[in-house]
Every structure is written in structure tokens, then in C-alpha cells.
């Protein structure tokens, strides 16, 4: 298969310390891929390596089947036809919006260049803003200009480093949705770095969960959320509860809540102690005055309410509709949604 980007066994060292280790990643044309992970896990370092800003210690990077870096021979950044968008927008303050967008356009006459700028302004819904300066725009508008500038010269790959971190929450998710629609309509291949799983879920087609310079798991966001291969990936993508269990057979596990059917993602011998993953929304609680389980914490979150309960000496999180809120200290019974349970 021909990939827009193919990375094989990439390793990058800084002062003899391994920052990226034997990392491999294939991205198809038109895909938006998110690199998700905590600060310092190697996300931005990987972007810089792809862009050609850092030399590889070993491994191979291919763009559209062409080797751009193999650790020995390295194509300069300016010849890779890669666009970059940063969290601080990186607009030139002394240039107008139109001049910023036109900055990267080379080998075009003035008429063709201005026609391309007008196309980009229309594309990012900023027609009529061409003569304004960056300081006259909102954060969301400045990011749209940055997107327009990056798309104007039709890059083969677009790299986005925390592009929405400086956008106000009230407008952020509308902007993310708009830019995603724009990218999909234009067939843009993009890699997007963030530490926000909410941004990742909305913006990306696939996700690569990074941890200390390696990719823990790569695939569709829904698959990673429902079928994490490790507790690290599970914790990275949402709230988690881990219930003690003992494996009795291929799919049967004994817990304090009875027998539960689950799927193991590692070799767990029969009779061995392990843990079952339950998301907070899989823990259903209802009022029950005869129960010995109590609500210890309660957090109102608009449409939902987040609870912490204590059961069998273990703290458990639960999420349910706020339309029927329960009270602190209230006794409740627990019912588990046991579909697609994972054992670790």
C-alpha cells in the first residue's frame, strides 16, 4: 500500500538519551492522525523529526514512498513540502492577513497569487479580512489564517502542534469541527499533537497513544477506547475503574459482584488474580436504603453527574444523568454494564 507517510523503526537520541525508540507509524492519504500523550512523551519531537528539523539516529521516514531521512541521507526541511501550524499561530504581526497567507507562495505571478489568497480566505470563512492585521483578529480567526497559509501552497503533509491550546473554550470545539470538515473536504493528510483527549476524539480519524518515546497503541479512536491493550492506554482515554477478579475459564471471571464475562488482552492463567476494566458510565447506581454502599463524592457536570462510591473497601467512580441526581451520603445499589469488559 502507498502511504502518505511511513515511519519505520525511528530512533532519536539527544545527548545519548533515547527520546524516540524504534517507532513505526503508517498514515494513509487524507487521514488525520492524533499523537496523544502527556508532556515530555515525545510528541513534538516526532513532529520535528518528520519535518526534518531533527536528525534521526536510525530508522526511515518516507513521504509518498520517497525516502526523506534514513539516518544517513536527509532531505532538507524546505524540500519536503510539509506545512506546520503552531499553538501560537506564528503569524507575522507586520503583515496583513492576505500577506501572511501569500508569504509561502513561490513561483506565482501576482494575479495568480492573489487569486489563491482569495480562495483560502473563502475556504476558512475570512473573506473581507484580507487587509486586517493579526492583532485585529480573535484567537480563533488567527488560527484560521494560520491554516489558510499552510494550505495555500498545497503541502503533502500538515503538522499541527497543540493548535487549539490558546483558543477560548467557548469557541474551541466549533473551530475544531470546522477545521476538521475543511481538511476532509480538501483531502488533507495531517498529524495533530495534543494532550487533550477531547480534542483528539473530535479532530482525528486515528490516534497514536505515546508514552516515553514509544507508541503504546495505534488505531481508530473508538477501538482504542473500547479495546485498550494496556492500562496506560485505558487511563489516557478516559475515566477507569479496575475491579479485582480471578480468571476461572476463557471468558469467566469471579468478582465481588459475581461472575462476569470478559476478554483478556494478556496471558492470564486460570485461577490467577487480575483486574477488570469498567468505565464510569458502565457503573449504574440507584437509590437503595438497604444497601451498605454510600456516595462519598458528587460533582455536577451539566447533563451528567459524577459520583465516587465505596463498595467492598474500594473507591469506584460512576457517571449518570443529572436529571435524577442522588445525594451525598445516600445509600445506593450497583448494577454493572458488562458488555465489552477487558481483563488486565
Task: Explain what the structure shows.
The protein is of the alpha+beta class and 344 residues long. The chain has two domains: 5-234, P-loop containing nucleotide triphosphate hydrolases (Rossmann fold), CATH 3.40.50; 239-343, OB fold (Dihydrolipoamide Acetyltransferase, E2P), CATH 2.40.50.140. Helix content is 23%, strand content 36%. It is built from eight helices and 21 strands. The protein has helices at 43-51, 97-102, 110-123, 139-152, 169-186, 197-203, 221-226, 231-236, and strands at residues 5-14, 17-27, 32-36, 58-63, 66-69, 82-86, 157-161, 190-194, 206-211, 214-220, 241-247, 252-255, 258-261, 263-264, 273-278, 283-287, 293-301, 304-311, 314-321, 331-336, 342-343. The strands form four sheets. Strands 6-7-8-3-9-10 form a six-stranded mixed β-sheet, sandwiched between helices. The protein has a six-stranded mixed β-sheet with strand order 13-12-11-15-21-14, with no helix packed on it. Strands 16-20-17-18-19 form a five-stranded antiparallel β-sheet, with no helix packed on it. The model has no long low-confidence stretch (mean pLDDT 92).
Amino acid at each position: 500500500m502507498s502511504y502518505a507517510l511511513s515511519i519505520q523503526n525511528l530512533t532519536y537520541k539527544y545527548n545519548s538519551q533515547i527520546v524516540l525508540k524504534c517507532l513505526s507509524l503508517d498514515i494513509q492519504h487524507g487521514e488525520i492522525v492524533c499523537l496523544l500523550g502527556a508532556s515530555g512523551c515525545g510528541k513534538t519531537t516526532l513532529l520535528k523529526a518528520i519535518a526534518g528539523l531533527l536528525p534521526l539516529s536510525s530508522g526511515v521516514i518516507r513521504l509518498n514512498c520517497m525516502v526523506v531521512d534514513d539516518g544517513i541521507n536527509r532531505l532538507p526541511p524546505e524540500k519536503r513540502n510539509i506545512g506546520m501550524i503552531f499553538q501560537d499561530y506564528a503569524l507575522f504581526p507586520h503583515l496583513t492577513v492576505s500577506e501572511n497567507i501569500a508569504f509561502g507562495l513561490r513561483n506565482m505571478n501576482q494575479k495568480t497569487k492573489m487569486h489563491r489568497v482569495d480562495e483560502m480566505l473563502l475556504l476558512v470563512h475570512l473573506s473581507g479580512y484580507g487587509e486586517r492585521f493579526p492583532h485585529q483578529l480573535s484567537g480563533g480567526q488567527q488560527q484560521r489564517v494560520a491554516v489558510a497559509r499552510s494550505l495555500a501552497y498545497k503541502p503533502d503533509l500538515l503538522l499541527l502542534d497543540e493548535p487549539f491550546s490558546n483558543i477560548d473554550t467557548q469557541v474551541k470545539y466549533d473551530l475544531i469541527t470546522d477545521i476538521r470538515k475543511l481538511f476532509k473536504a480538501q483531502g488533507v493528510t495531517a498529524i495533530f499533537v495534543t494532550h487533550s483527549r477531547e480534542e483528539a476524539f473530535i479532530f482525528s480519524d486515528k490516534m497514536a497513544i505515546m508514552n516515553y518515546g514509544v507508541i503504546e497503541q495505534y488505531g481508530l479512536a473508538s477501538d482504542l477506547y473500547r479495546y485498550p491493550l494496556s492500562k496506560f492506554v485505558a487511563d489516557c482515554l478516559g475515566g477507569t475503574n479496575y475491579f479485582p477478579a480471578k480468571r476461572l475459564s476463557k471468558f469467566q471471571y469471579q468478582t465481588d459482584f459475581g461472575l462476569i464475562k470478559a476478554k483478556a488482552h494478556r496471558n492470564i492463567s486460570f485461577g490467577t488474580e487480575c483486574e477488570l476494566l469498567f468505565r464510569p458510565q458502565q457503573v449504574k447506581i440507584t437509590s437503595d436504603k438497604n444497601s451498605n454502599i454510600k456516595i462519598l463524592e458528587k460533582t455536577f457536570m451539566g447533563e451528567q453527574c459524577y459520583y465516587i462510591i465505596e463498595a467492598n473497601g474500594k473507591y469506584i467512580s460512576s457517571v449518570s444523568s443529572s436529571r435524577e441526581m442522588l445525594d451525598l451520603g445516600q445509600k445506593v445499589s450497583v448494577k454493572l454494564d458488562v458488555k465489552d469488559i477487558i481483563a488486565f
